[in-house]
Please model this.
Amino acid sequence: MRVIESLNIRLKKITESRICLSVQGGLAFAGPFTLFGALILLILNYFPLTLNEWLTKSLGIDLKNFLGIVNFSVFSMNALWICFGVGAVYVGLNRQKDKAMGGLTGLISFLILTMKFENTDAGLMLQLKEAGSDGILTAILCGLISGFIYEKASCQMEQRRNKNTKNKGAVSASESSKALELVMESFRALWPVSACILVVIGIRFMGELLLPDTQTIALFISSSIQKPFTSLADKIWVLLGMDAVISLLDWCGLSGINTMNTVTTPLGSINKYANQALIDSGETLILGQNAAYFTGQYQFFARGAMYTALLIAVLISSKDREEKIRARALIVPSIFNISSVIRYTLPVVLRPQYLIPVLLAPVLSNLMVYTALTVGFIKPFGVLAPPWTTPYLLYGFLVSGWQGLVLQVLILVVNIMIFLPFVCFMRKGK
Model:
């Protein structure tokens, strides 16, 4: 028990570090755009063709094409929101009043590194190819680096200003010094911003010297770091191992998802935006060729049914009246994917009888999702991702239509069958 508590403390320090919080918070900045884009995608997927034709004839506007432009605009610029968000969260954790400036500095840093002009017959054309999925890792790094430099420069400037204020004494209280203070306050961010931009300019200059003309810093990071990492992490055996680790942490009383979020959230974001870019370009996604598997949605398919299945297994086979009452009370939070209360109330944490099914259920569910994608029963996932509190079976329908609903029903049944023998074993042991 002491080992578990010690591990929990250490993992908590890691997950609550500034870097982890900044990455997770920064990626959350893209959440409103993603949810709005998901709503547009739902309309595009389920909008009646006859109604669209009627609107086209009566209004002269192809609604599907119009919404497609909105959808592309939202999802093709996700790296911009991410670099702003990471920089804002990093600075805002210690300097709340400078949160917006930290975000803007991260955004400007990203643009300096990624903007490229091309001469055409129509004049200079601005290229921002890295504003989408290819630039997510660069955006995260820009937000962290610019936030770090901004905060250090701001602290240094404040220390000097406080020192000068103490030396001046009563002079600082005069009307003239107050007016001067107001003027200086408006330029307070000048030095931190300048320090960040100078560093980024230096990085861009070195990139221009060392990289080919066709490649930017963001493309270099994408090709040399981001793509190899996402390719390795997208292997089914890696993801099965990740599922087992998350489940083991859950069984130990830790939050497996929250612990792994710093790795899984960027990975899922990169993959889902890359898939969506291919969908928007008209390509057909094929798993194992051009489509990524781990986009975040697969975790809801693979893990969302586990604790609901456990509660159903308890209600089916348990003879313990008190246990059944607890299970009935926990059905509602399980519907909305709130698992922590189930792990501690039923309880699941550190109960040896539940270790094997807790490890086995998501792994088998994951294999079912992977098989369904491989044989083409459901299509690879894009950016359409309802909120995590969406009920399990409804989530599958919204993401993958009736096929997703059928797949999640099968996963739920398999999970119930996995848990039933172990619940019966616990009943006999009482």
Summary: The longest helix spans residues 392-429. DSSP finds 19 helices and two strands in the chain.
